[in-house]
Automatic annotation (TrEMBL):
It comes from the Bacteria. It comes from Uliginosibacterium paludis. The lineage of its organism: Bacteria, Pseudomonadati, Pseudomonadota, Betaproteobacteria, Rhodocyclales. InterPro entries: GntR_C (IPR011711), TF_FadR/GntR_C (IPR008920), Tscrpt_reg_HTH_GntR (IPR000524), WH-like_DNA-bd_sf (IPR036388), WH_DNA-bd_sf (IPR036390). Keywords: DNA-binding, Transcription, Transcription regulation. SMART domains: FCD, HTH_GNTR. This is GntR family transcriptional regulator.
Length: 230
């Protein structure tokens, strides 16, 4: 049975992508649990659409390693893959360091104002202990940097790659990776951009993305049933 608070369709994206993003978010934030069964019939009824866009979303989710489609048996949420987490971090770092290096030289004052406002909202979410809101703002922060150099494709390219990494990050929020620490890392990236210093900005982004190297083992020790065996 689907959770009652699963997102509704409301954006201008194609329906299949809206469903993909809704289900991806539900898996990342632990609304849909590892091993849980989901069906195209139930999801199509939930969203009030035909089964075809749901099946398209399933294919994309399977490609990201978030679900497994077993003919005649059903579709199930996958456990977290340690290999995908570590490979995803490696690829994401390569892409995002390249993005912020270019952004440090080209970012506009308006983009910096928007990033500063986003950071203020992150701090508010942290004070309220609203992790869902914080994660949304985190996504917006990184997306905005790609958009500042007119290369949103860079962020879209790593969205699937970082899916397992995002699941670990969600489980790490709080005691293992305090929100205040992540905000401090975001502010270091912002200050590098503001000073138009490519090297400083790249170093700040690397430090931020490598945080998961420290949190991965503690998260896996606390949640062993969530992870695939290596």
């Amino acid at each position: 049975m689907l959770p009652a608070d699963l997102l509704t369709l409301s954006t201008n994206e194609p329906v299949n992508l809206q469903i993909y993003h809704a289900l991806r978010q539900a898996i990342v934030n632990c609304t849909l649990l590892p091993g849980q069964s989901i069906s195209d019939k139930e999801i199509s009824e939930h969203f009030g659409v035909s089964r075809q866009p749901v099946r398209d979303a399933f294919i994309k989710l399977a490609g990201a390693g978030l679900i497994q489609i077993l003919p005649q048996r059903g579709t199930f949420v996958m456990k977290i893959s340690p290999k995908r987490v570590l490979n995803g971090r490696f690829i994401r770092e390569a892409v995002e360091v390249a993005v912020v290096t270019r952004a440090a030289a080209a970012i506009s004052e308006d983009d910096l104002i928007n990033l500063s406002a986003n950071l203020d909202q992150q701090e508010l979410a942290a004070r309220r202990k609203d992790t869902a809101r914080f994660l949304s703002l985190d996504e917006e922060f990184h997306t905005a940097i790609s958009r500042s150099i007119d290369c949103i494709e860079a962020w879209e390219m790593i969205e699937d790659i970082k899916a397992h990494m995002d699941r670990v990050r969600y489980l790490s929020l709080g005691e293992i990776s305090p929100l205040d620490l992540l905000i401090t890392q975001h502010r270091a990236i912002f200050e590098g951009l503001k000073s138009h210093d490519p090297e400083r900005t790249a170093d700040a982004m690397r430090a931020h993305l490598r945080e998961i190297n420290l949190s991965f083992d503690p998260v896996r020790e606390r949640n062993p049933d969530w992870f695939e065996a290596e």
